[in-house]
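step: validate -> pass
step: tokenize input -> pass
step: predict -> running
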Amino acid sequence: MDAQRLTTFIESFEREEESFLSRVRSQAIADRIPVIRTPMISLIKTLLHIRVPERILEIGTAVGYSALLMAENTPPEVQIVTIEKYEKRIPVARQNFKDAGVEDRITLLEMDAARALEELEKAGDRFDLIFMDAAKGQYPGFLGPSLRMLNKGGILLSDNVLQEGDILESRYAVERRDRTIHTRMREYLYEITHRDDLQTTILPIGDGCAVSVKL
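step: predict -> pass
step: emit ->
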């Protein structure tokens, strides 16, 4: 079976996005800013309708596309906290939230994710969905505080866990500069699939994602 043909066939059934979301996504792609891929968009929308979360945490805002997608597919009372430290992207994200009319629903924390998670945990924050889409080598460090803040029955959604297929290769078969990330991602995947407090499935969609439910 041709994997690329199959992916193209599946994606052909996707409905067109709301115009503002489509513009944000197109601009991000034009500016070479990473945004979630089409299969991930569909998965997020489906998960949000299976179990509507009261509070969402996103680790990695970029220009705000994913946060906007989640706001678009949840009731107006749902609150979203998103974290971004890259200064050039923060004002773009804030403007996108304002233009979409959802700035009152989305709290953007302008700081390093590790620090933000520490502060949120200290404040006693709790979440029903946590979307991890930040620096891949940092996933293991983000896991502990994320799970402590995740409510029972909540979902941890981790994106880009297959690293364009490199995760399948031996550590020595990948570029030297990528070996640390490769090792840490393998450790992360082992951890989330072997914890007694998680039920995890790894899906080969987009660049790979893991869906974990807190037991």
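step: describe -> Helices lie at 3-11, 19-30, 38-50, 65-72, 90-100, 113-122, 139-149, 179-194.
step: cleanup -> pass
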